[in-house]
Design brief:
alpha/beta, 6-stranded mixed sheet, 4-stranded antiparallel sheet
Length: 277
């Protein structure tokens, strides 16, 4: 058994060959990030840089820590009792876990769209305006709402009925409404946690087209189980696995095209070709 494990370790490429850092400026720099839910360790020693105005996909089987890592990027995990993070998450070279950093301001700059659309039981207009109001926006609210709905590719479908409940929209429209709500705060980054998993193929393609359009102005980090989606929408891909005792680890990271066509770790190849996961 010991010889077998030693042989497997010897066959794996050096870690430096598996992490290809993006060229140019980065919006996030993670340094030796480990994370715990109480006594349960969920992430172990993750270091990577996430580039500005690119789509970065986090892929891997269920339970490998993708969503936990995503939520570390805007301190959403802080809302869960008993959590602990070691290492640093640097956003434009500022550690967002430093004692003098306001997590509310972090979440204003780094928005989030969840797996299941979660519009408020309010009108379409009020759904979009809510975040801007909470963050103290004093300008022309109708203009801000229209701009956000246009950015979310929803304006043409709802412009004549902004008083209609957001809950009356289709699933795909609701998800784009949630994206518009996030955009109304004018964030620098949007995190997306499997934003298409509850949608049909047509709605999924609309969200994917939207992602490619939004990344011209924003940085996007997306968790997805859909390998085809990761290949279609992302510029960089990080492959994660649950290692010893279920601790999430970063296995391989680099340009999406290279990772999908020429993976450097056998485990990456096995996952993206459907041999496990």
């Amino acid at each position: 058994m010991t010889n077998t494990l030693a042989s497997e370790r010897a066959e794996q490429p050096p870690r430096s060959h598996l992490i290809i850092e993006p060229e140019g400026p980065s919006v996030f720099g993670l340094e030796n990030v480990s994370f715990w839910y109480g006594r349960k360790q969920a992430l172990g020693d993750i270091s990577m840089k996430i580039p500005v105005k690119r789509v970065t996909a986090l892929i891997g089987p269920s339970g490998c820590g993708k969503t936990t890592l995503l939520r570390c990027l805007n301190r959403m995990n802080d809302l869960i009792p008993g959590v602990r993070l070691e290492g640093s998450v640097n956003y434009h070279e500022h550690n967002i876990y430093a004692k003098d950093i306001d997590p509310v301001e972090v979440r204003r700059r780094i928005g989030m769209v969840f797996q299941k659309p979660n519009p408020f039981p309010k009108s379409i207009f009020e759904n979009v305006a809510f975040g801007a109001r909470v963050n103290g926006y004093k300008g022309d609210m109708r203009e801000r709402v229209e701009k956000s709905l246009r950015q979310a590719a929803l304006w043409d479908e709802v412009s004549d009925d902004l008083k209609k409940s957001g809950l009356a929209l289709s699933g795909g429209q609701q998800q784009r409404l949630c994206i518009a709500r996030a955009l109304a705060v004018q964030p620098d980054v949007i995190l997306m946690d499997e934003p298409c998993s509850a949608l049909d193929p047509i709605a999924t393609l609309k969200i994917e087209d939207l992602i490619r359009d939004l990344v011209k102005e924003l940085t996007i980090v997306i968790v997805t189980h859909n390998m085809q989606q990761a290949a279609r929408v992302s510029d960089y891909t990080a492959f994660m696995l649950a290692g010893v005792q279920g601790v999430g680890q970063l296995i391989e990271y680099g340009p999406t095209r290279e990772l999908f066509t020429n993976p450097r770790d056998q485990r990456t190849e096995d996952y993206i070709t459907g041999r496990f996961g």
